[in-house]
Amino acid sequence: MNRKQLKSSVKKLLFDFLREGPDGASGKDEEKPEEKPEEKPKKKSKASPGEILTKPGKGGRYKKFVADAGARAQKEPKALMKDLGVVSASAGDDMSQVLSILNSAIHKNATMGQAYAGAKSVFENTGGKSVKGVGIALAALDARNGMKFISHTLEAAKRAGYLNLRGGIQISPGKSAEIVILAI
Question: Which of 56, 70, 115, 158 could form a disulfide with 163 if both were Cys (CB 3.0 to 4.6 A apart)?
């Protein structure tokens, strides 16, 4: 037996061994029931009401203050809202509420004012349609950390009762602004 045949035989034995079930029986002698092709789960077209999705892009750790804001959004959302200058619930549709909360935080909190240049209503082209959303301009913060911090801010607003979403929202990089928040 030459080297190539030996290698092929060993490989075949290993694959046969790996295919054996937990009881040691290989599937060759047993009759297998006819398998149906796996059905792919249908993609949801919309997020659950109140769901906040973020598409931050590349991996890595978030800055410490972003991670701290996430912990605070979970444990003490009203205190975080107070520190950001958001003192009351917003009214209107989802995008109006988001815009109101973000503008309050950006213009009333010095740190938010340094991180973000502002928020405004924008129209973003997605899939050939123009969709109303909220665009955020960055100042001293990169887009990835900026999106996650906004996500934490909106989650805290939701938990504190200041943001009552009827649908889900998605935070992602945009074309009309550096960060765009859209209803999904």
Answer: 158
Calpha distance 16→30 (Å, rounded): 14
Instruction: Report the DSSP beta bridge partners of residue 119.
Output: 136
The answer to the question of residue 98 being in a domain is yes
Q: Does 89 fall in a domain?
A: yes
Residue 93: Cβ within 10 Å count: 13
Give me 93's structure tokens.
């549709």
* Helix-, strand-, coil-residue percentages of the chain, each rounded to 5: 40, 20, 40
Grade residue 104 by pLDDT with cuts at 50, 70 and 90. Answer: very high
**pTM of this prediction?**
0.70
What residues make up the domain containing 155? Answer: 52-183
Strands (E), 128-178: 129-138, 169-173
The burial of 84, by beta-carbon neighbours within 10 Å (0-12 exposed, 13-18 middle, 19 or more buried), is given as: buried
Q: Which amino acid is at 131?
A: V
* Of 137, 143, 132, 122, nearest in space to 167 by CA: 132
Kind and range of the H or E run holding 114? helix 110-115
Mean of pLDDT values over 99-113: 92
